[in-house]
Amino acid sequence: MDRHDIQAVSERIDVLLDEVQRRAEPEITLKVEELVRAVLSLHGAALGQLLSLLSQEQVQQLVDDDVVAGLLLLHDLHPDDVATRIQHALDSVRPYLGSHAGGIDYLGLDDDGVVHLRLQGSCDGCPGSTATVRLTVENAVLDAAPEAVAVDVAGMVETQQTLLTIQPFRTHRDGWHQLDLVTPPGQVQHLTIGGLDVLVANLAGTLFAYRNNCPVCSSALHHGVLDSDRLTCPRCTAAYDVRLAGRALAPEGAPPLEALPLLPEGSGWKVAIPGVQPA
């Protein structure tokens, strides 16, 4: 069973429990909930005993696997505290956020379960970057800290909402699609994900994802020229900085590319397509 199968099983359990709560008689529902708690308690005790037999180095090797780490979090057995987990999560996503997220400071978790972050720099001039930062940071924080119920990012340019409200007990995978990438360094790759044309560029080993559409002339960009960090549209010759959140280099004042959050997951990758649920 791979990690995608594990995720599917987890989601299926949620669906079944929800169905029991909606359809079963109250006394049956209570028995099912008691059964689930008993099984979790048994598994948690066994995991705790197992961890006590391992060295600190062996435990860390286990924690490096995100599936095992999630299980340890479920049973409150993860060796790292919430601040350490969130800091590590933010460190892991910084390379994929673009220039606007060169610095994200963790300010703390308050008594209401809200994680407070401060974004250094500005997203001015790259409207697409706000969605990129929101989705990527939200996903990273929720995976690392299930204790959190919301994320407040100070310094984020917003037109409507500034608080990332996160419902507890959800899968946190809305809009994220798994994919395998074979983009060589210095080249671009064209994919269709969730009905959306996506362009992935490999800049010296760091991957960036954008909607495959020139904001100036609406042409596809995967036939354009990628020269270092500069991507030039094959039709209108508009140019964009792929590394710096897709900002327009020419013509002056042109809108930026629409950035899509792209993160490593296990041996593959996942990309967020806003408003499109994975199949």
Automatic annotation (TrEMBL):
<dbReference type="InterPro" id="IPR001075">
    <property type="entry name" value="NIF_FeS_clus_asmbl_NifU_C"/>
</dbReference>
<dbReference type="Pfam" id="PF01106">
    <property type="entry name" value="NifU"/>
</dbReference>
<dbReference type="GO" id="GO:0016226">
    <property type="term" value="P:iron-sulfur cluster assembly"/>
</dbReference>
<feature type="domain" description="Rieske">
    <location>
        <begin position="176"/>
        <end position="271"/>
    </location>
</feature>
<keyword id="KW-0411">Iron-sulfur</keyword>
<dbReference type="Pfam" id="PF00355">
    <property type="entry name" value="Rieske"/>
</dbReference>
<dbReference type="GO" id="GO:0004497">
    <property type="term" value="F:monooxygenase activity"/>
</dbReference>
<dbReference type="InterPro" id="IPR036922">
    <property type="entry name" value="Rieske_2Fe-2S_sf"/>
</dbReference>
<dbReference type="GO" id="GO:0005506">
    <property type="term" value="F:iron ion binding"/>
</dbReference>
<dbReference type="InterPro" id="IPR034904">
    <property type="entry name" value="FSCA_dom_sf"/>
</dbReference>
<keyword id="KW-0001">2Fe-2S</keyword>
<dbReference type="GO" id="GO:0051537">
    <property type="term" value="F:2 iron, 2 sulfur cluster binding"/>
</dbReference>
<comment type="function">
    <text>May be involved in the formation or repair of [Fe-S] clusters present in iron-sulfur proteins.</text>
</comment>
<dbReference type="InterPro" id="IPR017941">
    <property type="entry name" value="Rieske_2Fe-2S"/>
</dbReference>
<protein>
    <submittedName>
        <fullName>Fe-S cluster biogenesis protein NfuA</fullName>
    </submittedName>
</protein>
<keyword id="KW-0479">Metal-binding</keyword>
<keyword id="KW-0408">Iron</keyword>
<dbReference type="GO" id="GO:0016705">
    <property type="term" value="F:oxidoreductase activity, acting on paired donors, with incorporation or reduction of molecular oxygen"/>
</dbReference>
